[in-house]
Amino acid sequence: MGYRVAVVGATGNVGREMLATLAARDFPADEVVALASEKSAGREVSFGDTDILKVRDLAKFDFKGTDIVLSSPGSKVSAQFAPKAAAAGAVVIDNTSHWRMDPDVPLVVPEVNPQALAGWRKKGIVANPNCSTIQLVTALKPLHDIATITRVVVSTYQSVSGAGKEAMDELFSQTRAIYVADPIEEKIFPKQIAFNVIPHIDVFMDDGSTREEWKMVVETKKILDPKIRVTATCVRVPVFIGHAEAVTVEFADPISADQARRALRKAPGVTVMDRHEPGGYITPVEVAGDDAVYVSRLREDPTVDNGLSFWCVADNLRKGAALNAVQIAELLIAEHLDK
Question: pTM of this prediction?
Fold first, then answer.
């Protein structure tokens, strides 16, 4: 007997990717329901290569009888509807930022801290981390296991798809406008994104960091180790899909680049592509549609004791969102849910 699964935010970038991932991984669902706002109700979305689902109105949906909810509707909507779904008996796997730092909600990357999932019954909600955090901790975990990380400095190069479909449309329209000498319109981003980079993602906080940078700090600590010191600079770049990160790590214990490379090659969810030659590394355009977190440019940092630097790339809509959520659902089924 399979599960009844609801996908909330089914018309968005991540929601559509969740549907595609469920189908591609043959998730054991007897029924999949697509949910979105009232204005999207009645639209059709694809589920796999052949099935079409008609979107239903989230506000009118009764979650009774639903086993698993994959949720990516925005924080305010999740704050309202995730508890309702959990109260109806579903386990909610939420991709928004609203629940991530709730002490009673597990924040899970299956390759990194699967043991945290044991606490899901406290609220019936499991949080999916931020996309940039997911790929970072997936790469850090095997290194932390062998040498104990003390400090991480990360600079991100984040694609526009992380800001939604309208952001992708803005990059496209601005790029076209430049080539045909039309005026540049800025609607989603505070400055021109085409042929530019913007060191500003989410809102600014009192200390001068942005909320996206804060997320990377606190989520890494919650998932991996509260003792790790983390500083982040998050930058939006004119790429449609795929986040990249330049990472420098300090360790408590000695570790060589070769040791790190061997550990990463054995790690689940990680692929090492690290040839020290032109093109011997991975870039965002190459990871679109791929499940893995790629590590390249791995080298020792001579400016600190026990330091390494590397380049990390992943599809932010897949491992950074939809795939991680589906993997959490699979882990719940395997170890925590009775059917």
Answer: 0.95
